[in-house]
Write a structure and sequence with these properties.
about 725 residues; Growth Hormone, Chain: A; 3 domains; five-stranded antiparallel β-sheet; 24 helices; about 60% helix; globular; disordered C terminus
Length: about 725
């Protein structure tokens, strides 16, 4: 602009009249319009993609918040819930290769829109069993349900058993067994989550590459950062939605809530888990609508038309002649694409795979990430259950705490890691140190949680004997004692009552209660022989519901929250440095392929198995299993708090420790490559191409260190 003004001054001073080139004005005008069109289109796409990221993150986190609700509603163990949770990754893996390969050649916005519809269909399918299963039935003694008949909980004479209370109840149960025995409604939840995984697949690869193809190069990283930021907000709303729905009774709107005799603190309480899935499904539908009206292509910015860098769309398969590729993209059908490119795909895939597996740093970091993600995924999946069982908190409060405290700490940690990387211009060796330090101190903090647990609730016959001593014998046999030997009780029931002595009894019958008064939540049991025989007992009455945990438990819960937030932040600080380390340890042209293999490995070896074996391990700590209406083991009613703490935290720490060893190996290899001890410097005093001038310039690929000019001004913006 300055040059043109100087030239005009000189020309006019010489009284020279120059002809005006109107074509240049037209070209500038058209370029300006094209730029505005490009910017407007990409910003619309950016807004739509951000909303989709929010929708998928919300539905995914909401599923985590309903783990315990689903377990209780369908009467299934934690291991089976883990399979349901892992089905999302299975659905994602089923079509990830097809989407990544063919998606770039088709109408990407519409494929994303179709994915949103599939994702919403899966979310609606998860909620569908609620309309088929009938009303939720929980175990309750008849007198707490029927206010007109007071029945003795301890039926001393079996011949005098009340037909209206027990036999009629058993007849109703047997009548419904034929239908229930032939159906497993949890399969719908599994299939729905599988569909969610299929629908979510095209969003990230096609959405990010679309932005990368048509955004101004210096704005691409900013746009991607905006999308990722919105994705972090999704889980916050997901857990808050889970907190709200957990407060509402599962059959709200269909039953009289005054007749419900359990509270939120009861282990049989099930919230309106299905309601959140309906809301998440509607949001997914709305998020997919804009993509059906977006174009297949946007005009490319002027700065990228002559750029030597190719887009992700042309990098996925080995590059052809540009003219041939354009013609091929416009005319070929899907079948022809698969047939014509199969050999080229194989010729690209296997050499690239060999190159990656020959990269020591990449393989070590991949192993460290797989093991660490096993640790983190298992911990996050069952964190709500751990808080509920260990500290006696309700599902609603647990989800509220996770959504409002833990997730923002994770987001702030990721941001802090990126900020430190950019501010101090940390190189690959520094990134490896920061990632290792983050993991080490994070798991070290997690170690302190072993002493921040609550003691087992005092449950007669399970954790303590009927005389107040610690229970050491077989749990099931210990449910019967001299004080309830004259009663006709079932060891399979779970209808807890709280005695005046502060001890919980599995049922009023096993507490030896002879009479009851009142109805519903206000039922009071009297003349309970087992309550009277307990040490230091002054009364023999009891009320409905389990007793509260010890006085120290609320304080321990506060300590747990503080350490949990700090731990979440510390572990998250290493997220960005670890990602940069992954990008820097491979050759530039293998980035996309390496990230694909990395994502695939994490999903297959961590996302799918971790919830399953964590669930199996947690099931081993169960003290009292519920019983299904038609027989068989249901969901766990009571866990051994100490065993649960050691299993849950121990498994997390064990996996984290192994991942730290691999991270140490990564750092050792990088140091060995960057600073050999017996390195001979050239005559000019500088190191060779595989050396480094300073700690900030330690960038490596599989063969030698990447030049320091590759780092600045590019990846630090991610």
């Amino acid at each position: 602009m300055e040059i043109s003004s100087k030239e005009n001054t000189r020309f006019f001073s010489n009284n020279t009249i120059l002809p005006v080139d109107r074509s240049s004005f037209k070209s500038e005008s058209s370029a300006s319009k094209e730029k505005q069109s490009c910017c407007g289109g990409i910003k619309v796409f950016l807004g739509a993609l951000s909303f989709v990221y929010f929708a998928k993150a919300l539905s995914g986190s909401y599923l985590k918040s309903t783990i315990t609700q689903i377990e209780r509603r369908f009467d299934i163990p934690s291991s089976l819930v883990g399979i349901i949770d892992g089905s999302f990754e299975i659905g994602n893996l089923l079509i990830i290769i097809l989407v990544s390969y063919f998606g770039a050649k088709l109408h990407r916005p519409r494929i994303i829109g179709a994915g949103c519809l599939i994702m919403s269909a899966g979310t609606f399918l998860i909620a569908m069993p609620q309309s088929f299963m009938g009303r939720y039935r929980y175990e309750r003694f008849p007198s707490t349900v029927n206010s007109t008949v007071n029945i003795s909980p301890c039926l001393q004479d079996k011949n005098q058993t009340s037909l209206s209370a027990l036999e009629k109840s058993q007849v109703k149960i047997n009548a419904g067994c034929e239908k229930e025995a032939g159906s497993s409604m949890w399969i719908y939840v599994l299939l729905g989550n599988l569909l969610r995984g299929i629908g979510e697949t095209p969003i990230q690869p096609l959405g990010i590459t679309y932005i990368d193809d048509y955004a101004v190069e210096e704005n691409a990283a900013l746009y991607i950062g905006c999308v990722q930021t919105v994705a972090i907000i999704g889980p916050i709303f997901g857990f808050l939605l889970g907190s709200l729905c957990a407060k509402l009774y599962v059959d709200i709107g269909f039953v009289d809530l005054n007749s419900v005799t359990i509270t939120q603190k009861d282990v049989q309480w099930v919230g309106a888990w299905w309601l959140g899935y309906l809301i998440a499904g509607v949001i997914s539908v709305l998020a997919g609508i804009p993509f059906w009206f977006l174009p297949k292509h946007l005009p490319k910015p002027e700065s990228r038309k002559d750029s030597s860098t190719s887009s992700e769309q042309s990098k996925f398969i080995i590059e052809d002649n540009k003219d041939r590729y354009k013609s091929y993209q416009q005319q070929a059908k899907i079948a022809e694409m698969a047939k014509g490119k199969s050999l080229e795909f194989l010729s690209y895939f296997f050499p690239s795979l060999k190159s990656l597996f020959g990269n020591t740093v990449y393989i070590l970091y991949l192993c460290a990430s797989i093991i660490q993600f096993n640790s983190l995924i298992g911990m996050v999946t069952y964190k709500p259950k751990y808080i509920e069982q260990q500290y006696g908190q309700t599902s609603s409060k647990t989800n509220f705490v996770i959504g409002l405290i833990n997730i923002p700490a994770v987001a702030f940690g990721i941001f802090s890691g990126g900020l430190v990387m950019k501010k101090f211009r940390i190189g690959i060796l520094g990134a490896a140190k920061l990632s290792l330090g983050s993991s080490f101190f994070g798991y070290l903090l997690l170690l302190s949680l072993f002493v921040m647990g609550c003691e087992n609730s005092e449950v007669a016959g399970l954790t303590v004997s009927y005389h107040g001593t610690k229970q050491m014998t077989d749990y099931e046999q210990a449910l019967f004692s001299e004080c309830n030997s004259g009663c006709s009780c079932s060891k399979n029931d779970w209808d807890p009552i709280c005695g005046e002595n502060g001890v919980t009894y599995v049922s009023a019958c096993l507490a030896g209660c002879q009479a009851s008064n009142g109805s519903g939540k206000n039922t009071v049991f009297f003349n309970c022989s087992c309550v009277g025989t307990f040490e230091s007992s002054q009364n023999s009455s009891a009320v409905v519901g389990p007793c509260q945990k010890g006085n120290e438990c609320p304080k321990m819960f506060l300590y747990f929250l503080v350490i949990s937030v700090i731990t979440s932040y510390t572990l998250s600080v290493g997220g960005t440095p670890g990602y940069i380390l992954l990008l820097r340890c491979i050759k530039p042209h293998l980035k996309s392929f390496a990230l694909g293999i990395y994502t695939l490995a994490i999903r297959v070896l961590a996302g799918i198995p971790a919830p399953v074996y964590f669930g199996v391990a947690i099931d081993t700590t169960c003290l009292k299993w519920g019983s299904k209406r038609c027989g068989g083991r249901g969901a766990c009613r009571l866990y051994d708090s100490s065993a649960l703490r050691y299993v849950y935290l121990g498994l997390t720490l064990m996996l984290g420790t192994v991942s730290i060893f691999f991270s140490v190996a990564v750092l050792w290899v990088l140091r060995k490559r960057s600073s050999p001890p017996d390195e001979i410097l050239p005559a000019n005093g500088e190191r060779g191409t595989c050396g480094t001038k300073s700690r900030k310039d330690n960038f490596v690929n599989s063969d030698c260190l990447i030049q320091s000019t590759y780092w600045p001004e590019k990846e630090t913006r991610l």
